[in-house]
Amino acid sequence: MQEIIEVCSLKKSFKNNQVLKGIDFKVNKGQIFALLGSNGTGKTTIIRILSTISKFDEGNVKICGFDLKKEPNNVRSCISLTGQYAAVDEMLTGRENMYLVAKLRHLKNYKDTVNELLEMFGLSESKNRRVKTYSGGMRRKVDIAMSLLGDPEIIFLDEPTTGLDPQSRISLWETIEGLKKKGVTIFLTTQYLEEADRLADFVTVLDNGIIVSSGTPKELKTALKNSDFQEYEKEMPTLEDVFLSIINKKGGGKNDNI
To answer: How far apart are CA 254 and CA 258, in angstroms?
Structure first.
């Protein structure tokens, strides 16, 4: 498969605190890639680096074939970022938020595209309401819909379902699965292990600034089941079981929020 993100020996420090200690991973085009880890292990730092918000100290990164350090503008042209909180203007309607982003991206003939995205996300009936009247799930959908303007090849989703109720979370999962079917590559961080279990094609676990395990959810669960853990003799462990087993063996992550 074609690799759309390539990270080699990535290092990053804040003052005397080395947050990333030599990270290597690859993401295939059209894949949902989940980066897991406890708070403070460097997940958000990686997202900020790959989305060109933060610089890194050492290493090599290629995104969509572009060198991140030498060609950041080209990288920005093929990616989009949705952070932990919906970046929408509550005083504007859903459609007006979309129009605003389309204009900022200098898109032409964007009105039809906006209507298509609103329909895709089930927001057509509420498009003329101010966003302040939307539920948390609806705001998050507007946020992700805005990130699709300009047809990005990669979308970075940093804990996209944090704070959502179960119904809104499941609805957003279905939306993310729909994006994958359209060929969009999804780079996902999440604190919900069931979310990664359902969505991810490939999982990488980060702990204390290093990658401690990688594989498909099935591969990671099968490896734990085939280990000497007697409690998994009769049933397949969950991805949460896998994560806790890995982290406990490594001594656990930090508690600071980096």
So the answer is: 9
